[in-house]
Structure formats: structure tokens, C-alpha cells
Design brief:
By secondary structure, the protein is α/β, with parallel strands linked by helices. It contains 7 helices and 7 strands, in the order H-E-H-E-E-H-E-H-E-E-E-H-H-H.
């Protein structure tokens, strides 16, 4: 994408307009469309509780599309295979280097595939575990123990990994947690209210980080 167009889009992100977030659409056969009520519920929670001005309509956007640059935050989920083409890699690199943010939430079964694609995306930058002292766990809601556990999966400790670009967290990978399931309508997974609240508050922290840094 033309660098002047990119800069123009980034400028719009920082103005007082209603901002939009999106679900990332990718190839490989994985169900990128899983958890359809997740982001709308998270947007509603954030607009009501941390005074964001997010558009309640959540779109999907193709990883290789120029439209990716319209969204300062994109959420990626699924249970299976993920394949980024060379064009996808280049577009996503440009997006992230321009200030975009990618949240990858393993919905159980994505891990072995997405790690390979992250390595293709950042061959010279390590995916590192995010310390519990990072601001994303501190504001507006406090998570002193780091990422909350939402769904059991393999009953392992939830972990938050990241890729940093010039000290800015650009890619957040949440593993053994399943925040997206916690954002879904209550009747989908029948999670207790306190578990859903933890998921939504952690999601609010992520969006707060994106729109305040």
C-alpha cells in the first residue's frame, strides 16, 4: 500500500471518529468465522464500561486485502489450519509496522499451525511470553496473575505471547485461555457470569491498549 495512504488511515484512527474493529479472514481451512457473537459483545461491553466509541457492527476483513488498514485492531481465531500466502505476509507486515494490532486467540487446535505462520511473518523476531507486569494486564482492569483462564482445553496454564515492534506490542497471541469463547453469548457455552466478566474485562484491557498507545 502507498505509504501516504497508510499514514492517512493511521491519522484517521487517532481522530474522534467512531472506530471499527474486525475479524481476520484467512485461508487454510480453519474456521476463521468461529465465535460470531464474540466481538459484538466485547464492543458493547467496552462502549458501556470504558467509554470507547467503537462501531457495534463488526466486519470481517481478508488478511491480504488493502481494507485491512481500515481497522486498528483485528481479531483472529479458529480451531484448525492457517495458511498465509506471500501476499498475505507482506500485507500483514505492512499493516503491523504501520501501527496495526493483531490479536490471535487459539480456539483450541490452532496452535501448531499459527506458530509456523507467525514465524513466517516475523522470521527475525521472537514470539515471547508477555510479563504479568505489562500494562495490558493492569488497566483499566487489574489482572495481577496475567491472562485469565476461561476454558479448560488441555488444562494448562493460560499464556499470553507477543511480538513487539520498537517496544510496541503489535501481535498478541492468547493460548490455553480462549477469551473469544468467554465473549460469546452466555447461552453458547453456559459459562458462569464471573468467568465471562473476566474474559470481557481482559478484552477491554486489550482494546484499551490498542487505542491508547
Amino acid at each position: 500500500m502507498n505509504k501516504f495512504i497508510t499514514l492517512g488511515i493511521l491519522l484517521v484512527w487517532n481522530l474522534g471518529f467512531s472506530q471499527e474493529i474486525a475479524v481476520l479472514k484467512y485461508s487454510g481451512g480453519g474456521d476463521w468465522y468461529a465465535n460470531p457473537t464474540s466481538l459484538p459483545n466485547l464492543v458493547k461491553f467496552c462502549n458501556q464500561n470504558i467509554k470507547t466509541k467503537l462501531n457495534p457492527k463488526v466486519n470481517s476483513v481478508d488478511v491480504g486485502s488493502a481494507e485491512l488498514f481500515l481497522y486498528p485492531f483485528v481479531h483472529m481465531t479458529g480451531h484448525g489450519n492457517v495458511v498465509f500466502s506471500n501476499n498475505d505476509i507482506q500485507n500483514l507486515q505492512n499493516y503491523l509496522n504501520s501501527g496495526g494490532f493483531l490479536h490471535i486467540d487459539d480456539n483450541y487446535g490452532m496452535d501448531e499451525y499459527i506458530r509456523k505462520e507467525i514465524k513466517k511473518l516475523f522470521p527475525n523476531t521472537a514470539l515471547v511470553e508477555i510479563p504479568k507486569t505489562h500494562t495490558i494486564f493492569q488497566t483499566p482492569y487489574s489482572f495481577p496473575n496475567g491472562l485469565p483462564k476461561i476454558h479448560e482445553h488441555d488444562n494448562k496454564q493460560p499464556q499470553a505471547y507477543g511480538v513487539f515492534i520498537e517496544n510496541r506490542l503489535a501481535v498478541l497471541y492468547t493460548f490455553e485461555c480462549d477469551l473469544g469463547d468467554g465473549w460469546e453469548n452466555q447461552e453458547v457455552h453456559n459459562d458462569p457470569i464471573n468467568v465471562r466478566e473476566k474474559a470481557l474485562k481482559m478484552g477491554a484491557n486489550i482494546l484499551n491498549y490498542v487505542f491508547s498507545n
